[in-house]
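Protein modeling request. Please complete all fields; requests missing the sequence field cannot be processed.
Requester role: graduate student
Desired output: 3D structure, token encoding
Chains: 1
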Amino acid sequence: MDDDLETQVCMLQSHMDGMILRAQKNEEMLKRFQDLEMRLLSLNSLRELIEHIHDDALLVFNLEAMSLVLADDSGEINQFLTEDGFRFDEYKSVILLSDVALFKEKLGLSQRILLGEARDKLPKEFWPAKKKSPETVAIIPLVRRGVYLGCMVFASNDGSRFQVDMATYFLERLGKVLSVCMENTLNYEQLRRSSLFDTLTGVNNRRFFEQRIDEEILRSLRTGESLTCLFIDIDFFKKVNDNFGHQVGDMALTHVAERLRDQLRSNDILARYGGEEFVALLPTASEKKGIEAAERMRKAVSEAILEIPGHPALELTVSIGVSTFVVDQPGVSEPIDKSILIEVADKAVYLAKNAGRNVVISGGEVMAGSTVKKQSA
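Delivered output (377 residues):
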């Protein structure tokens, strides 16, 4: 009798210990989840939001892998991320889908979390093509006002991790919080860019450029990679306005902006600086690569004829000045004032004008320490 009672007490104690351990784990999970929520709700930048949800969710939910799939039928999200320097090569699990109907087709109208084996539940479109498929998944819809914004896929190589009958409170709450964050952040990005966007030419404006050049200088200081600045001026633009009128002048500005943008990489930055002047930032580009890019831009403009109804076709050219920020010691060098980099490129434009226009001239390398190292033609 005593032995039976002692056995029951031991079993009860073991059961209570298990309950206490589970309660402690749940409390720890709740604390980590609340911290994650607070971080997400404090972010305004789409780039920061995506980086945080990707990195933090892996830790908070102890995941082996995940993907974040976003509806991007207009290409707007891709543009926002690219302009903000998002490293798609580092976040291959972030997938942008132009076919937004896929979300309703694959996830259904119920907008519920899907749990189970990946081979049954995970659409191939929601997982990176070159990444090994997991064993089990939890697919969390991101929905706001009845519209799919995307979904998150939490993945595990443990065949028992995500089962159909498991509790989904934390996952459902995370989906709702992230959906609100996504909607708010996209609205903020649209509003922010409306004030940083040149409506005439379709490129960024001077305000945006001056924000980004500070960021790119700091990035160069961290990484040790060069940063090249191009200052671009349309030749004889005043004559275009005087001879054809400002409406044709506006057409010429748009035409040149399009030719310039076509020659840049996705992470390069082009902005209208004022009047007929444009500036471009080329992250990671050496002076040589910057001059090569400038030559491509100059050639693209000079070879593209602008047809004007009722007027003779316009043959436009640009003069381009180049300057390159160079860092000898990453993480140690002091930042320079952005005006120095811009001024060197601007002075090189005047040299290009004096050299006959429609040419590229480099003002040289600007070392972290504000000294022009050399000049190149």
